[in-house]
Amino acid sequence: WQSAMRKGGVSRVRVAVHNFAKSNLDDTVKIEWRIRSRPDRVALAEWTPIYNSTTERYDVGDFHLKSTQHKAADKYLYLSQGVTLYNNDGTKLGNTNVIFYLNPKDDKVKFSGYKRFYLGSTQCSRKIDFPYLDTADFEMITAVRSADMFRFRVSGEQYNENMGDCTNYGAWQEAVKQASTMEMTLHTGGKDLPDY
């Protein structure tokens, strides 16, 4: 079941409720339904474009970001991706942040950046060189509930970036426990990034 959900081939679901009683249950019980998107459980058939914007808020789960390269970077490019956690009152508890720097050099593109999380005035920041990225074709998963917080799928392989060695990782785990919703934000320093 999990495999079917994660493959992304499911585009719609149907829920049915049957009444096998002879009496009219409408007089004794009220049945209602609603549907909520769960990034960690519902496989979406389509990817939603995001550019210098913020998603809606969803239940706490894993956020998937897909990057597709149109052309190789021929100049310096900057990209920042983050996921923010909120409690039931809508108060911000903390956020993740991954910075991508794309530097063209000697007919190749060098990827570098930072992986971070913030909790109020404290943070944990680590430099990252992305040795597994040769192009901007990848899927990034932000798994806020895991020490392997940032995961990259490249050409069928997965590479995990761990944040569990941060001295304040325990405080991050506590923030995640208090969180009820999250949203993802994408920022870039150039207007022409979608061309790449």
Question: What does this protein structure show overall?
Answer:
With 196 residues, the protein is mainly beta. It is 8% helix and 39% strand. The protein has helices at residues 2-6, 169-178; strands at 53-54, 58-59, 62-67, 77-86, 92-105, 108-119, 122-128, 138-143, 150-154, 157-161, 181-188. Strands 1, 2, 4, 5, 6, 7 and 11 form a seven-stranded antiparallel sheet that branches. β6 (108-119) and β7 form a beta hairpin. It is globular. The model is unreliable at 34-44 (pLDDT under 50).
Helix content: under 10%
The poorly predicted ranges are: 34-44
**Derived structural class:** mainly beta
Number of helical regions: 2
Largest sheet: 7 strands, antiparallel
Content of β-strand: 35-45%
Annotate the secondary structure layout:
Blueprint: H1 2-6, E1 53-54, E2 58-59, E3 62-67, E4 77-86, E5 92-105, E6 108-119, E7 122-128, E8 138-143, E9 150-154, E10 157-161, H2 169-178, E11 181-188
Antiparallel strand pairs: 1-11, 2-11, 3-8, 4-5, 4-11, 5-6, 6-7, 8-9, 9-10
Provide tags for this entry.
single chain, 196 residues, mainly beta, four-stranded antiparallel beta sheet, globular
Give the structure's gist in a few sentences.
The protein has 196 residues and is mostly beta strands. The protein has two helices and eleven strands, in the order αββββββββββαβ.
